[in-house]
Design brief:
- There is one protein chain.
- Helices cover about 50% and strands about 10% of the residues.
- The chain has 35 helices and 17 strands.
- The chain folds into five domains: about 200 residues, Rossmann fold; about 160 residues, Rossmann fold (3-Layer(aba) Sandwich); about 100 residues, Winged helix-like DNA-binding domain superfamily/Winged helix DNA-binding domain (Arc Repressor Mutant, subunit A, Orthogonal Bundle), CATH 1.10.10; about 90 residues, Orthogonal Bundle (DNA polymerase, domain 1); about 100 residues, ATP-dependent DNA helicase RecQ (Arc Repressor Mutant, subunit A, Orthogonal Bundle), CATH 1.10.10.1390.
- The relative contact order is 0.06.
- The chain is of the alpha/beta class and about 725 residues long.
């Protein structure tokens, strides 16, 4: 070490108590001390702030730190003050200060006491502040969260755009830009906007080898899936991100009802509650915080063990930052995201109200998220490529990824790669991914028509494969470096030198098939059941036998006792007490009390005889969100109110109201709707339908419609079925 190096190591020990620097810190600090413009790209948690704090503390003059978040400034100021006996060593200058406080800040700066002055970009534009800062020695200006300058960053702030002009007024001071998001486009924007193309650039690796990345299909059973996941990680800290405040509240409630200590966190809560919930999480009074994206900017909890995305985020930057809150201490960090294309469509709808330029950017960023979720190649490789970093197949943490651990089929695609590269070359680099794929499969849209591409001989030359195939191949060819996405015209695909060489001399290219994420709602339930284990066939048989016996004894059809979906749920979850039986699909308290004891006796004997380990965490209690509706319906049917009035009072369609009523009677509660049915059907008609259900094997409405062949409409039959179940079963 030369004397300079020894010097800064001594200062590091003196101020921060560390005996060595982390990663690139030392090189960055050396560059700043040499008065050079410096650009630092370092992932969240990589030790960015020390890069400007240490040089500020050991140089003459005051360093200005521009930061967008008031809470973060306060945290940093407190942290620096704790290193020194002098309170004035660090100050904040923003709109929250009184006149007296501002005078104190100015006094401390003038006397040379203040080493770090944190300002919001808005405050820097005030002429009185600029005039004051021109009169005192400034060591350098640091711009934290510099991606706010670029509208391609995930947190664009127009007021950041003007910083260059203000800094120029302060004389020849060096500029330090720092950011944790680093797509090449954003980096270029920052350097251009701060007029520091000569900057020394330091870029740390974005690879977090201890994080495990996983994407699951989002199904109707997502809540039970999340609960099961958290119970498998009992006692560990985690964050669940949702896009809306409403979802945050409801997920936090479901978790609490199911015995998980969780609190909500979003901008709709008052500051006191937010601070309280944040502290509870930091102090480990609760395990889980359910939050909107805004959460955790100032959170530095090193042992967050999992981050769950209930909704897919709007950009890969956000995803990287949010997952980056896991495993800061280098220990385990499980990043689980739920994906369904429906959510993406919802986000696109939100964007449609914005200015066109913003929409374009929003769509482009969102498409990258879709590509990440749907890809079947290494997620880590995909993510790092997005941040402009190449990741070798055997790099650190290579197997920490669901795609790598459960690889999809690979197929040889050498000829198709050549075809794709030729199309990019021959359409002269004017198209984004979508138009390239359309050109291959021969589909016309306005853009293709405008360029007359549909008249070219190669149009449709790839129609032997579908759109999904070409999209998947395109993504993998991009990551392999044969194509690149142009930065300035976000999303335009160009061929690289390596791509041109590939056309001349093709080599093998093994392509993984993309994931299928487009299952319909009903399939979703089936897949969820399959993934969580199917119903126990043997037990199912025994339950059906028992149902038959009970029904015979009571002289009712079997479906009156329990419907098939309820039995399947029992054969999946093995409830052995009446309380557990309440939580089975379609079984409420009334039904459990009336018929339940024989069933739970059978199940507990079966569980014992066969040494079955019960998935007790599968019984997900609901928060009774609909219970208010149900109560309203029951009370007003008791008062013989018109069903039309009940439906409109709760904003339900007739169909939805009947559904609610079916759930009520099928779970064992009586609903006396005779008054309503009497107005629709005479006694003979009612008797005819009643006898049909009494003798029928099934309670399916389709079967009843067939049987009566148009004599009754669907609502009449459904209401009669409700009346029947209510009288006979409950």
């Amino acid at each position: 070490m030369n004397s300079n190096e020894i010097e800064i190591h001594k200062e590091l020990k003196k101020y921060f108590g560390f005996s060595q620097f982390k990663g690139l810190q030392e090189q960055v600090i050396t560059s700043i001390l040499a008065k050079k413009n410096t650009f630092v790209i370092m992932p969240t948690g990589g030790g960015k702030s020390l890069c400007y704090q240490l040089p500020a503390l050991i140089q003459d003059g005051t360093a200005i730190v521009v930061s967008p978040l008031i809470a973060l400034m306060k945290n940093q100021v407190d942290a620096i003050r704790s290193l020194s006996s002098e309170n004035g060593i660090a100050h904040v200058l923003n709109s929250s200060l009184t006149k007296t406080e501002i005078a104190q800040v100015k006094k401390d700066i003038t006397s040379g006491l203040t080493k770090l002055l944190y300002v919001a970009p808005e405050s820097l534009t005030k002429e009185e502040y600029v005039a004051f800062l021109q009169s005192v020695p400034i060591s350098f200006v640091a711009i934290d969260e510099a991606h706010c300058i670029s509208e391609w960053g995930h947190d664009f702030r127009p007021e950041y755009r003007n910083l260059k002009n203000i800094i120029k007024q302060l004389g020849q001071v060096p500029i330090i830009g720092l950011t944790a998001t680093a797509t090449p486009k954003v980096q270029e924007d920052i350097l251009k906007n701060l007029d520091m193309s000569d900057a020394n650039t330091f870029k740390a690796s974005f690879n977090r080898p201890n994080l495990y990345y996983e994407v699951r299909t989002k199904t109707k059973n997502i809540e039970s899936d999340i609960i099961r996941f958290i119970k498998q990680h009992k006692g560990k800290s985690g964050i669940i991100y949702c896009l809306s405040r409403k979802k945050v509240e409801s997920i936090a409630e479901v978790l609490q009802v199911n015995g998980i200590s969780a609190v909500p966190y979003h901008a709709g809560l008052d500051a006191k509650t937010r601070a309280k919930h944040q502290d509870m999480f930091l102090m480990e009074d609760v395990d889980v915080v359910v939050a909107t994206i805004a959460f955790g900017m100032g959170i530095d909890k090193p042992d967050v063990r999992f981050v769950i995305h209930h909704d897919i985020p709007k950009s890969l930057e956000s995803y990287y930052q949010e997952t980056g809150r896991a495993g800061r201490d280098g220990g385990e960090g499980h990043c689980l995201a739920y994906y369904s294309y429906k959510d993406v469509e919802k986000l696109e709808k939100f964007m449609s109200g914005k200015p066109v330029a913003e929409q374009e950017i929003g769509f482009a960023l969102l498409q990258e998220v879709v590509a990440y979720a749907e890809t079947s190649m290494s997620r880590r490789k995909f993510l790092l490529h997005y941040f402009g970093e190449e990741f070798p197949d055997d790099g650190e943490g290579a197997d920490m990824d669901d795609n790598v651990r459960n690889p999809k089929n690979k197929v040889e695609a050498q000829d198709q790669v050549v075809k794709l590269l030729e199309i990019v070359r021959d359409t002269k680099h004017i198209y984004k991914s979508k138009e390239l794929v359309f050109t291959l499969i021969g589909r016309v849209n306005a853009v293709i028509k405008a360029h007359k591409t549909d008249t070219q001989s190669f149009f449709g030359s790839g129609s032997d494969h579908d759109e999904k195939y070409w999209m998947a191949l395109l993504r993998q060819v991009l990551v392999s470096g044969y194509l690149s996405k142009d930065i300035e015209t976000y999303g335009i695909v160009k061929i690289t030198k390596a791509g041109l060489d590939f056309i001349k001399k093709p080599v093998s290219f093994m392509m993984s098939e993309d994931h299928e994420y487009n299952e319909s709602e009903d399939d979703a339930i089936v897949t969820a059941a399959k993934s969580s284990g199917t119903a126990d066939e043997v037990l199912m048989g025994m339950l059906k036998e028992l149902r038959k016996k009970v029904a015979k004894k009571l002289g009712v059809p079997p479906f009156v006792v329990f419907q098939d979906p309820s039995l399947e749920d029992m054969a999946l979850k093995y409830p052995i007490t009446l309380t557990e039986l309440y939580n089975i699909h379609g079984v409420g308290e009334g039904k459990a009390k009336k018929y339940g004891s024989d069933f739970v006796t059978l199940i507990s004997r079966y569980v014992e005889d066969n040494d079955i380990i019960r998935p007790d965490d599968l019984v997900v209690k609901s928060t009774g969100v609909n219970s208010a509706n149900k109560l309203y319906i029951i009370q007003n049917i008791d008062r013989k109110l018109s069903l039309n009035d009940i439906a409109s009072a709760k904003g339900l369609s007739m169909d939805a109201l009947i559904k609610e009523m079916e759930q009520i009677v099928y779970s064992g509660t009586k609903l006396n709707i005779k008054y309503w049915v009497d107005d629709m059907l005479d006694d003979d008609q009612q008797e005819e339908i009643h006898d049909y259900f009494m003798e029928s094997e099934s309670d399916k409405i389709e079967d009843a419609l067939k049987e009566f062949d148009g004599d009754y409409d669907i609502d009449e039959l459904r209401l009669m079925r409700i009346k029947f179940i209510s009288e006979v079963a409950n």
